[in-house]
Automatic annotation (TrEMBL):
<dbReference type="InterPro" id="IPR050547">
    <property type="entry name" value="DEAD_box_RNA_helicases"/>
</dbReference>
<dbReference type="GO" id="GO:0005840">
    <property type="term" value="C:ribosome"/>
</dbReference>
<dbReference type="InterPro" id="IPR034415">
    <property type="entry name" value="CsdA_RRM"/>
</dbReference>
<dbReference type="InterPro" id="IPR014014">
    <property type="entry name" value="RNA_helicase_DEAD_Q_motif"/>
</dbReference>
<dbReference type="InterPro" id="IPR057325">
    <property type="entry name" value="DeaD_dimer"/>
</dbReference>
<keyword id="KW-0347">Helicase</keyword>
<dbReference type="Pfam" id="PF25399">
    <property type="entry name" value="DeaD_dimer"/>
</dbReference>
<protein>
    <recommendedName>
        <fullName>ATP-dependent RNA helicase DeaD</fullName>
        <ecNumber>3.6.4.13</ecNumber>
    </recommendedName>
</protein>
<dbReference type="InterPro" id="IPR011545">
    <property type="entry name" value="DEAD/DEAH_box_helicase_dom"/>
</dbReference>
<keyword id="KW-0694">RNA-binding</keyword>
<keyword id="KW-0067">ATP-binding</keyword>
<dbReference type="InterPro" id="IPR001650">
    <property type="entry name" value="Helicase_C-like"/>
</dbReference>
<feature type="domain" description="DEAD-box RNA helicase Q">
    <location>
        <begin position="19"/>
        <end position="47"/>
    </location>
</feature>
<dbReference type="InterPro" id="IPR005580">
    <property type="entry name" value="DbpA/CsdA_RNA-bd_dom"/>
</dbReference>
<feature type="domain" description="Helicase ATP-binding">
    <location>
        <begin position="50"/>
        <end position="221"/>
    </location>
</feature>
<feature type="short sequence motif" description="Q motif">
    <location>
        <begin position="19"/>
        <end position="47"/>
    </location>
</feature>
<feature type="compositionally biased region" description="Basic and acidic residues">
    <location>
        <begin position="457"/>
        <end position="487"/>
    </location>
</feature>
Length: 601
């Protein structure tokens, strides 16, 4: 195809009227598999793409994730496979291992009534032995990531000489991840006579150039959606301080009726921390991120699918391509800073017509992100409040009632325990209702069934009007302010930002925690003065941590953290008057007075 050739464009209908899969020209075995899966009406991308691919035309499909594009290319391929041919007839390139596995599962379901169809996932992190054995036996469809496909081509273990169908799934993502050169190398290794389908959510110049070079007069199919997020997903957000996110998540888990859930964190370390804290609170949770080996990732995802795991805590990349039917809720523990990531995240729920819930935690400074998401997706996010103690207790009581009802249905066991309770009542002269209450305590264990009400804020006593003296000298000298000693194991540090710089305790905690790798429990009292602030931190901070913290900025200002020794007005003794700016102490002298760890002596 030359640079001047323009693709033939066809716009997919938003809602194909009364169309069924039987109208698309698919064979009887494929239609039977679709009926068993429960598919009835094709989506817009499927209605426009399947007949075109069945005709043998190349296709460029513009569609967002979750629109059903996997079936759009997989069904025509399955329909035309020759099960007697051993060499691969179809190759699907996907940007991630998770997406490759998802596509493989789809092919296997669609080929459920075709005997002898073999589909092979090929991706990094999996041993070569399994892949080589399958390739030697013969496979019809290979679904893989570009890097591992290149490895097999270089080793001569993957023969693409008889390839008839090539699919580039989420082509824009592959280019973003640096696979452009690998994709072009693979395209060059395949027969010119193959049929190509390219699917992408966006059409950057590199994708446009690739389609012109490697596709033959493609039909360009664009699905124009009214919004970029599914209307089946209820989108809410909660304004919460950074330090309160875990408590907020715990309360939401208490009151929301969820089946499976994905909690998104911004970094690998935060996913591990969230999962650990959720397990400590009694929830079945696990983390997947870039540090988790592939075998463990697959095991964790399978546990989520089977119901052995209820909450998956993940980073964006680790969760891309996940399609688990029981995911009813997505929680953005850290709201993403770009709308595309937001759409991909919440797209893990509300798939294939199912309903879903998406809840985003937003700090007061991140409100603008909510507006940006609403503008980009053309859907309004509903602000929600933190579930109250009463709401949590109502939910707990309801679940407790359900447990009692379920136990009462086991009539034989109830009869045995009824005799035991009756025996206790007769011998101890205790009312049955008291015995039932005591048994509830035994069953509940140490954890209280109901939360205590939040304490009411104490009223301040009315201030007594100050008697003003005509002669101010009559007041006498003001008593010096007594400073509280830091608690055991802590030291007080001074930072060069204060009220004049409009800082708040949460900003100090957030900045020092992020830069120094500190936890919320590492912070003691924080006092914000006009020109500086005093922060209680562990006395045994390493020199490396102190160096990192000293170079931290809050509100754009270098905090120059150093040990405070309780001089007048909070000024560190030995630091000199800040009015003397003749020279700054050398970095190596900055912590001469700081407490030293035992291993530094």
């Amino acid at each position: 195809m030359t640079e001047t050739d323009a693709p033939i464009e066809a716009e997919a209908p938003e809602e194909p009227a009364a169309m069924t899969f039987s109208d698309l020209g698919l064979s009887a075995p494929v239609l039977k598999a679709l009926r068993e899966i429960g598919y009835e009406t094709p989506s817009a991308i499927q209605a426009a793409t399947i007949p075109t691919l069945l005709e043998g035309r190349d296709v460029v499909g513009m569609a967002q994730t979750g629109t059903g594009k996997t079936a759009a290319f997989a069904l025509p391929i399955v329909d035309r496979l020759d099960v007697h041919q051993k060499n691969p007839q179809a190759l699907v390139l996907a940007p991630t291992r998770e997406l490759a596995l998802q596509v493989c599962e789809a092919f296997e379901k669609y080929a459920g009534h075709l005997k002898g169809v073999h589909v092979l996932p090929v991706y990094g992190g999996q041993g070569y032995g399994v892949q080589l054995s399958a390739l030697r036996r013969g496979v019809h469809v290979v679904v893989g990531t570009p890097g591992r496909i290149i490895d097999h081509l270089e080793k001569g273990t993957l023969d693409l000489s008889e390839l008839q169908y090539l699919v580039l799934d989420e082509a824009d993502e592959m280019l973003k991840m640096g696979f452009a050169e690998d994709v072009e190398t693979i395209l060059a290794e395949t027969p010119d006579s193959k049929q190509v389908a390219l699917f992408s959510a966006t059409m950057p110049p590199a994708i446009r150039r690739m389609s012109k070079q490697y596709l033959h007069e493609p039909e360009e199919i664009t699905v124009k959606a009214k919004t970029t997020t599914s209307a089946n997903i209820a989108q809410r957000y909660l304004i919460t301080a950074w330090q309160q996110k875990m408590d907020a998540l715990t309360r939401i888990l208490e009151v929301e009726n969820f089946d499976g859930m994905i909690v998104f964190g911004r970094t690998r370390s935060i996913t591990e921390e969230i999962a650990e804290k959720l397990r400590a609170r009694g929830y079945s949770a696990a983390a997947i991120n870039g540090d988790i080996v592939q075998a463990q990732r697959e095991k964790t995802v399978n546990q989520l699918k089977s119901g052995k795991l209820d909450i998956l805590v993940a980073t964006d990349v680790a969760a891309r391509g996940l399609d688990v039917e029981r995911i009813s809720h997505v929680v953005n523990y850290d709201i993403p800073t770009d709308t595309e990531s937001y759409v991909h995240r919440i797209g893990r729920t509300g798939r294939a017509g199912r309903s879903g819930d998406a809840i985003s935690f937003v700090t007061p400074k991140e409100r603008w992100l909510v507006r940006a998401i609403e503008k980009a997706t053309r859907q309004e996010l509903t602000e929600m409040g933190l579930p109250s103690v009463d709401e949590v207790n109502v939910t707990r009581l309801s679940r407790f009632d359900d447990r009692i009802t379920a136990a009462l249905s086991e009539s034989e066991r109830v009869d045995r325990f009824r005799d035991i309770v009756a025996h206790y009542v007769r011998n101890h002269d205790v009312p049955e209702v008291d015995v039932a209450a005591a048994l509830a305590i035994v069953a509940q264990g140490e954890t209280p069934l109901l939360l205590e009400p939040d304490p009411e804020p104490a009223e301040r006593p009315a201030r007594k009007p100050r008697e003003r003296s005509a002669d101010r000298d009559d007041r006498g000298p003001r008593e010096p302010r007594r400073e509280r000693e830091p608690k055991a194991g802590y030291a007080t540090y001074r930072i060069a930002v204060g009220k004049r710089h409009r800082v708040e305790p949460r900003q100090i905690v957030g900045a020092l925690a992020n830069e120094g790798g500190l936890r919320r429990d590492d912070f003691g009292r924080i006092q914000i003065r006009p020109e500086f602030s005093l922060v209680e931190l562990p006395a045994d901070l390493s020199r490396d941590t102190l160096d990192r913290l000293s170079d931290t900025r809050i509100s754009g200002r270098l905090i120059e953290m150093r040990l405070d020794t309780g001089g007048p007005s909070g000024r560190s003794r030995g630091s000199g008057d800040r009015g003397d700016r003749g020279g700054r102490r050398d970095r190596g002298d900055r912590y001469d007075r700081a407490p030293r760890r035992r291993d530094d002596r």
